Please model this.
Amino acid sequence: MRHFTTVSGIQNYLREQKLNHNSIGLVPTMGALHEGHSSLVKASLSENDITVTSIFINPVQFDNVEDFKRYPQTLESDLIELQKLGNTVVFIPSQQEMYPEKTILRLEFGSLQQEMEGKFREGHFNGVGIVVGKLFNIIKPDKAYFGQKDLQQYAVINQLVKDFSFDVKLRCMPILREDDGLAFSSRNQRLDAKGRTEAIILYKSLELAKDLIVEKVSIEEIIVKVQNLFGQSTVDLEYFEIVDPVSLMPIQSYNTQTNIALCIAGRVGKIRLIDNMIISK
Ligand code: AMP
Model:
């Protein structure tokens, strides 16, 4: 396993790989790797000659300083995990390396950032767009791997690729879950035993909503039923939205021809978790 901490170092290495016609897959992460991340790395390893996993906690996408400071950092075990997965290249830049100067450019994703995460995390998608744009320019990957777990982030990055004509193919990979259904997340590490038990309500809500959709219950009623479920829990519901999976705009009604995305965010104490489920027609 090779690892690079500088932009020039990884660029020199990848330039040579490109000359040898090796394809490059990129898996951007913020570290604290779990099985969800591993699934992206495995997908990239199987579809590309070279897989670059970046580990960078991007300060620009955090609206909350405390959340940034407390974001789990487990570099040593991350490297062991990556080593187990196969022959990967790891890019671990410092903040200074990624942001030698303060960024002036601001990205705005219109209706894609209007709802859900965009409403609750001021400036988040600007930060995501800036760092992913930088990574695309530094690594110049043929394919880049993201998780459906961050559905709105995927939509935003898809738009970024279109609007800036990045020459990269995006892959959106399924959500990996723990045995009881909780989606793997780096933030799960911060949950205490009680919080970990309570956190399952996010997945339970998605399952409940899915069952109600099968029963053709109205959107309004489904939202009330999910809100009621949270009424009995210590987890604070931040949002539960039923949206079009492409436009991410809330839908008022549905039929058997409609694809639906159920999106949820909640706070277990100070720890914010998100999840979603797509119901295809
Ligand atoms: P993060 O390190 O949280 O920025 O996540 C890096 C990538 O892993 C993002 O594209 C996420 O959507 C993806 N990811 C996070 N959790 C999961 C999961 N449970 N299953 C699959 N992919 C995930």
Summary: The two ends are 42 Å apart (CA to CA).
